[in-house]
Amino acid sequence: MTFTVAIIGRPNVGKSTLFNRLVGKKLALVDDQPGVTRDRRAGDAKLGDLNFTVIDTAGLEESDAASLTGRMRAQTEAAIDDSDAIFFVIDARTGVTPEDRHFGALVRRAGKPVILIANKAEGRVGYAGAYEGFDLGLGDPIALSAEHGDGFAELFTSLLEAL
Ligand code: GDP
Ligand code: MG
Q1: What separation in Å is there between the alpha carbon of 73 and the centre of ligand 2?
Q2: pTM, whole model, 2 decimals?
Q3: How far is the CA of 103 from the centre of ligand 1 (A)?
Q4: Domain EngA-type G spans what residues (predicted)?
Q5: Per residue in 63-79, pLDDT tens?
Q6: CB neighbours of 59 closer than 8 A, spacing ≥ 6?
Q7: Which-ligand-closest: CA of 9?
């Protein structure tokens, strides 16, 4: 079985960090500056015994289509179209923002399997924030730490169930 998963979410939630961990190389640019991933990046991901293509995207932002952020949004929508499943990432420390809700709705409308990931969930503070993800209507959030490598067994199980 060969399939593609797109990593979607607003800037700075840790999409590129997750991409790098799944691919096992530093292919994606990780930066504190939101929206640093301007171009789509694809890599060969490994999660448990699953091998698939993963697409890293720039953060979703609401904006004028002519602007840079508009192009990043178009690129994200193309990545959603090209994927078989979506990792929708929120920041467990920040909780759910209006931007997360807006694009959560967009991802839901795509009608593809979505796995909701509450990233930066290392420690108790992160787990508390992850609860806010429940009312996005995207299923139960998986508490993850892309940076520290926590929660990947659960992510594997969820992906298996979603496919
Ligand atoms: P992107 O804009 O969504 O691609 O986010 P990045 O992967 O560039 O990460 C944005 C910031 O969040 C960086 O400073 C990362 O080091 C940090 N970050 C990413 N994953 C985690 C995590 O699991 N825990 C914590 N505490 N920080 C993280
Ligand atoms: Mg990025």
Answers
A1: 13
A2: 0.88
A3: 19
A4: 3-163
A5: 444 555 666 677 778 88
A6: 9, 10, 11, 12, 13, 15, 34, 35, 37, 72, 76
A7: 1
Q: Give the pLDDT confidence score for residue 134 in this predicted structure.
A: 85
Pull the structure tokens for residue 149: 């490598």
Strands 85-91 and 4-8: parallel
Q: Give the 3-state secondary structure of the chain.
A: CCCEEEEECCCCCCHHHHHHHHHCCCCCCCCCCCCCCCCCEEEEEEECCEEEEEEECCCCCCCCCCCHHHHHHHHHHHHHHCCCEEEEEEECCCCCCHHHHHHHHHHHHCCCCEEEEEECCCHHHHHHHHHHHHHHCCCCCEECECCCCECHHHHHHHHHHHC
